[in-house]
């Protein structure tokens, strides 16, 4: 029972059109390694947005009056605020130095997941348009080329309600179920389990984040090897939706 | 750059007065291993509560009228609800099948962290009375016996606002700072970082949870080895407080 995590090194600064699957295979080869059955590949969302050419050119943004008002309240650049509004379904909370919204994908997070780190000055990277689709493209290509059963998870770093500090979370996935449903299972004493849904994709993302860092580490891709529950959780049709709590079940917004 | 996680096996069902530090050392020895500098030891809170003899005997609880009212609303056992009230500073949200409160320690979570899994029928385990103190006792004993620089984290599994599925979180720690402050650091392009506080103890707890499981796996102790930022985060005086968001900064309760 041993779980191993390692980062892919020598990942160049990614440009539009880059094939992430080729990047993964060639980086593994350089490390004299190759994909194994059960490997879970975690990819930072910024890398995906860059490869997909999905940038926001802040200079070209023309802030609306709503954006200007929220910018004043949040002490943020009105152009960035306009972009946050564009990426959001609903603005949930605004205060000095934060804007929390629900993104178009359904994620409740700060700044609609727009990143101004690890991108050229004047540019920002929004979340990938469809992180599940991005994951699927890489997953299918890697499966075709290697024949291995793998998982692919797109990760972000997000703050939490009630706890300080951001942590790695999953925003797209395939090959593995994001939630581990353990309803009906028994504990060591034969009693029904109390906690029956584990956010396993988020736990994998948090683990990978320990290696990725957010600064100049340049480790946007991490492989988790030896996850013994992989076979139980294998799901070639999975996506991130089961991890998103629908607004109607969200006690902190109702 | 490789991170390794492994569970300690052959951990017996722990009873009151058990020395967790001895359990760790003897289990490592059986695996023909020993503590290394930089090892982070993650221990499930249920194990701590059991070793500290910290049980709730539900049969002996006499529910108050407040508990009966909340029990009706939450469809929970009034005796359990009375225990939740006893363990809490403040009840935050109640609905069918959930009670979210702030525990005496300051954690916002469901059921005040009271566990009815992996404990004898009729009993429940509350959170450890002082998880930092529990961690410190084990930490100091292990340091004295081995001379190694280590970290000790007490973990729980908690649900989140906005996301389905529970994940591993830290509720006590020592030897390593729970938050990684990266203020002033630069990204790959030399720009100031945007996300400057990483909840690294929670990421470590989430990673460990991948091995612990919550059912009958019987893996309540996990060691994380090779965390390359350990030296940066080493802190012999640390505790969990920096991870707790104070109510006044909590936008979802104000």
UniProtKB/TrEMBL annotation, chains A, B:
The keyword DNA-binding does not apply. A divalent metal cation 1 binds at residues 115, 156. Binds 2 divalent metal cations per subunit. The ions could be magnesium and/or manganese. Monovalent cation. The ion could be potassium. A divalent metal cation 2 binds at residues 157, 214. Its cofactor is Mg(2+); Mn(2+); K(+). This is Coenzyme F420:L-glutamate ligase. It comes from Methanobrevibacter arboriphilus JCM 13429 = DSM 1125. Its EC number is 6.3.2.31, 6.3.2.34. The keyword Cytoplasm does not apply. One of its GO terms (molecular function) is coenzyme F420-1:gamma-L-glutamate ligase activity. It catalyses: oxidized coenzyme F420-1 + GTP + L-glutamate = oxidized coenzyme F420-2 + GDP + phosphate + H(+); oxidized coenzyme F420-0 + GTP + L-glutamate = oxidized coenzyme F420-1 + GDP + phosphate + H(+).
